[in-house]
Amino acid sequence: MTSATGERRGGNGRAGRDPYDLAAVLDIATAAFNEFGYEATSMGVLAERLGTSKSAIYYHVTSKEDLLRLALDRALGELERVLEQEGATTGKADARLRFVVRGAVRVLVDDLPYVTLLLRLRGNSAVEREALERRREFDHAVARLVDEARDEGSLRADIDARTTTRLLFGMINSIVEWYRPGGPLTPDQLADDVISVAFDGVARA
Amino acid sequence: MTSATGERRGGNGRAGRDPYDLAAVLDIATAAFNEFGYEATSMGVLAERLGTSKSAIYYHVTSKEDLLRLALDRALGELERVLEQEGATTGKADARLRFVVRGAVRVLVDDLPYVTLLLRLRGNSAVEREALERRREFDHAVARLVDEARDEGSLRADIDARTTTRLLFGMINSIVEWYRPGGPLTPDQLADDVISVAFDGVARA
């Protein structure tokens, strides 16, 4: 997992005056955006939740929109990274698709609040529309993998490729609505279950 | 499809003074709730969209919350009706489960805005919490069907019944995010595709 921290931290002398780093601010902001909605969340509320002042937040970012952009970038960056890994770029399309589905489930579980924020976007601002555009590019990359897997004969061909991709990601994305980390269902078991149900269905073979 | 109209319409003499019936008001209100969010939608905005006055809306309902309650009741009522039909109550559990999945897809498509509203609820008020409770009861009924279908040997038993139900409904519910009525994918074809992918998976058998 990467964090969006970095450029504006670092000086040791700052530790006393800046107890909360950007990663912590982003965590709190993302949780609040998910709970109250982005519009309804004020910088004052974020400061209160962090137990700090608004100026301590402005030390890291220039605006609330900046926080939204960084939070969405985190979710999108992780998803895009899955596509760049060797498992997603070499081998049979079927294996690459399974790798990407598994990787997407992992990102979703590891960065649950961030992906939740991404999936609930409506495109109300330039920042949101830009994020939706990146998400569409990710979806298209997966759709191309589905096409390739169909062409090689690994996937059923009686269902439209677009519908297949949407049902597949509908199932995966729904995880943000019910999965609770730390429960009896481990991330690895969840990924296994998703792969099993998505590729082979719920019926007994 | 039932409508929530009835009790307060009817007198022929009213036609001139009441051009919009409750069904039309509910359609407009549900669309606005989905577009702007329930909190952000005022009765004034609804009146404007209907090209009428607020008092014309208050002729049908006593409050905005009343509209929300009626809209949610329509989606829930239709879903609950699926469970009461003969296909859902008699025969093998596997066939009953498929009947309910197909019926849920149809309700979702036929009442898309209403089900969208239901699925996006957060439980911010008594009306929302009551609707969520009814939705949970529906989900539990489906979960019991999944259990029965596993017990009779129709469904795979290597995945937790709860996870199976959630992935199944994650796939179905995601339809509200991408399906557009009137496009090339007909409701019947969509229902067939959902049944195929959910029960048999996307992999070539």
From TrEMBL, chains A, B:
<protein>
    <submittedName>
        <fullName>AcrR family transcriptional regulator</fullName>
    </submittedName>
</protein>
<dbReference type="Pfam" id="PF17932">
    <property type="entry name" value="TetR_C_24"/>
</dbReference>
<keyword id="KW-0804">Transcription</keyword>
<dbReference type="InterPro" id="IPR050109">
    <property type="entry name" value="HTH-type_TetR-like_transc_reg"/>
</dbReference>
<dbReference type="InterPro" id="IPR001647">
    <property type="entry name" value="HTH_TetR"/>
</dbReference>
<dbReference type="InterPro" id="IPR036271">
    <property type="entry name" value="Tet_transcr_reg_TetR-rel_C_sf"/>
</dbReference>
<feature type="domain" description="HTH tetR-type">
    <location>
        <begin position="19"/>
        <end position="79"/>
    </location>
</feature>
<keyword id="KW-0238">DNA-binding</keyword>
<feature type="DNA-binding region" description="H-T-H motif">
    <location>
        <begin position="42"/>
        <end position="61"/>
    </location>
</feature>
<keyword id="KW-0805">Transcription regulation</keyword>
<dbReference type="Pfam" id="PF00440">
    <property type="entry name" value="TetR_N"/>
</dbReference>
<dbReference type="InterPro" id="IPR041490">
    <property type="entry name" value="KstR2_TetR_C"/>
</dbReference>
<dbReference type="InterPro" id="IPR009057">
    <property type="entry name" value="Homeodomain-like_sf"/>
</dbReference>
